[in-house]
Amino acid sequence: MLYFLEQGYRVVAHVRRGHRLSDQTDTGNEMDTYAADVAELAEALDLKNAIHIGHSTGGGEVIRYVARSKPGRVAKAVLIGAVPPIMLATEAYPGGLPISVFDGFRQALSNNRAQFFLDVPSGPFYGFNREGADVSEGLIRNWWRQGMMGGGKAHYDCITAFSETDFTEDLKAVSLPVLLLHGEDDQVVPIDASAHEAIKLLSNGTLKTYPGLSHGLFATHPDLINADLLAFARG
Questions:
Q1: Which domain holds residue 197?
Q2: Residue of 19, 170, 182, 186 marked active site
Q3: Is 56 a catalytic residue?
Q4: What are phi and psi of 224, to 5 degrees?
Q5: Quick check: is 110 catalytic?
Q6: What is the DSSP track for 115-143?
Q7: pLDDT in tens, 162-191
Q8: Per annotation, catalytic residue among 55, 56, 157, 194
Q9: Which one from 55, 155, 182, 215 is the annotated catalytic residue?
Q10: Rounded CA gap, 71 and 68, in Å?
Q11: 194 three-class SS
Q12: CATH number reported for the structural domain that contains residue 174 in this entry
C-alpha cells in the first residue's frame, strides 16, 4: 500500500467480513455476500475507475464483484494466486483438487486453529517448506496474528467459499482488462487448475507467471510484484 501511495495513487484496503477487525458474522460468509460487501463499500466511497486487486480467495471476490459492478466503477482488475475458475475438482475442471483436501482444512481448523495458522505460513503458503527457502519469521507470525484476529465460524465457512465456488460465468462476463499473476510453485492454489484455466475464459486477460515462486509471492517478492502491478495500472 505504501508503494502505491508513493506513486500517487489513492489506496483503499477493506477487511472481509469475519476477518480481523470486521464484524465476525456467522452468516454471509460466501462469495455473493463478499462481492455485495465490496459493492457497498465502492458505493459509499463513490469509487470511479478503480483497479481492484485480489489475492487467493480475494481474487474470487474481485472477479465476482467486477462481473456485477456498475459501469464506471472499475477500470481494471488483478487476480494474484487466485482461486478462479474453481479449486474443487469437477466434471468441467477435472484437474482441480479433491474434496478431501478441503475437508482436511476444515478438520485442522476445528481441531487446533492456532496450530493450523502456524503450519500454513510456515510451510506451503510462502514456500518456506522448500529446500533453501529464505524463511521470514515475521511473515509467519503476521499471518498467524491476522488469522487469529478473525472469527472461527467465518473462516470455517470461507473454506467452502474459496474451494467450491465456480467463477466460470464471472470470468466470461468481464471484458475489462484483467491481469493474472501466479507463482509456478504455488502449493496452495496450483497454477494448472487455476490461472491456466482462468485465462482461457477471459476476453481481455493477461497471464504472467513466476518460476519458483509461491502462493504468497506478493509478500516474499514485493519489488517484483509491485513493479508488474504498477506497469499494468499505468498501461
A1: 2-234
A2: 186
A3: yes
A4: -70, -50
A5: no
A6: HHHHHHHHTTTTTTTSTT----HHHHHHH
A7: 999 999 999 999 999 999 999 999 999 999
A8: 56
A9: 215
A10: 9
A11: coil
A12: 3.40.50.1820
